[in-house]
Amino acid sequence: MQIDILTLFPELFTTHFETSILKRARDAGLLNVSVHNIRDYAQGKHRVTDEPPYGGGGGMVLKPEPIFDAVQAIIGLNSDSNQARNQFPIILLTPQGRLFNQSIAQELATENRLILICGRYEGVDERVRQQLATDEISIGDYVLTGGELAALIVTDAVARLQKGALGAEGAAEADSHADGLLEGPHYTRPETFRGMQVPDVLRSGHAVKIRQWRREQALRRTWQRRPELLLNANLDEEDKQFLMILAEESIHGM
Ligand SMILES: C[S@@+](CC[C@H](N)C(=O)[O-])C[C@H]1O[C@@H](n2cnc3c(N)ncnc32)[C@H](O)[C@@H]1O
C-alpha cells in the first residue's frame, strides 16, 4: 500500500515511521509512506502557501493551487483533477469530516493507495474540498492545530491492518473494535505482582477455556464501558446468553 501525505511540516512525521510496527511494515514492503511538502509545489520566489481569507477575519487559509499541483504531480497526472479523484481516496483531514473509527480504517486498508491532505491555520481553501478531495475525515470532535496528527493516526490504524504487519497472525482481528467489542484484559509475567494474581485459566494451557474466558471478558468489558457497541457487534447465541448473565448481575447489583 502507498500512502502519500501532503503537509507544510514534513519534519513532524520522521520519527513515527521509523519505529515499531510501521517500520516493520515499511521494511517488509507492505507499506510505503511518502511525505510531501506542499511548499515545494507553491509558485513564485516566496513559494506562498497561504493567504488571508476573503471577507476578512483572523488566520490564514491554505491556497488551492499548491495542493492541486502536489496531488497531480504525485500521481503523475497533468491538470485533470477529476482523473485523480477517480483513482483512489484523496482524503482531507478536517474536524468537519466523518468521524474516524475502526470500520473506516478497515475500509481504507483495502485500498492500494491513499492521499492524505493536512490542513493548517484556518483550514484549506474550500475548492480543495469541492474539487479534489474524495473523502473528509475527522479524528474527533475537537480542533487540532494541523492535520498532521490526524494523518499519523489514520496511517497508523490502516498500516497495522495490512496483512503481515503485526507479528502474530490474526492479532488485529482480536483488537478492540475489530468485531464491535472491546478486547479483554492482558497479563504477562510475573504470575503474582503486589498480591495480584494472573487468572488461573490463562495459566491452564486449556486453549478452549482460554478462548471462552477471553470472549466473556471482552463482552463484560464492552457491557461495562461501551454498552452501545453491543447493538452492532457480531454476537452468537453463546454471547447473548452470557450478556443475559451480565444483565442479571447488574439487576442484582453484583
Ligand atoms: C485549526 S484547524 C482548522 C479548523 C477550521 N477552522 C474549522 O473550524 O473547521 C487546522 C487544520 O487542522 C486539521 N484538523 C484540526 N482538527 C482536526 C480533527 N479533529 N480531525 C482531523 N483534522 C483536524 C485540519 O486539517 C484543519 O484544516
Helicity level: 25-40%
CATH superfamily of the largest domain: SPOUT methyltransferase, trefoil knot domain
Mean pLDDT: 93
Q: Order of strands across the widest beta sheet?
A: 2-1-6-5-7
Number of helices: 9
Domains (count)? 2
Tell me the fraction of residues in β-strands, as a range.
Answer: 15-25%
Q: Any idea what the shape is? A: elongated
Bound molecule types: S-adenosylmethionine
Indicate the CATH architecture of the largest domain.
3-Layer(aba) Sandwich
Description:
- The structure is a single chain.
- With about 250 residues, the chain is of the alpha/beta class.
- About 35% of the residues lie in helices and about 15% in strands.
- Strands 2-1-6-5-7 form a five-stranded parallel β-sheet, with helices on both faces.
- Helix 4 crosses helix 6 (about 150-160) and helix 8 packs across helix 9.
- Bound molecules: S-adenosylmethionine.
- The site of S-adenosylmethionine (SAM) has 20 residues, from strand 5.
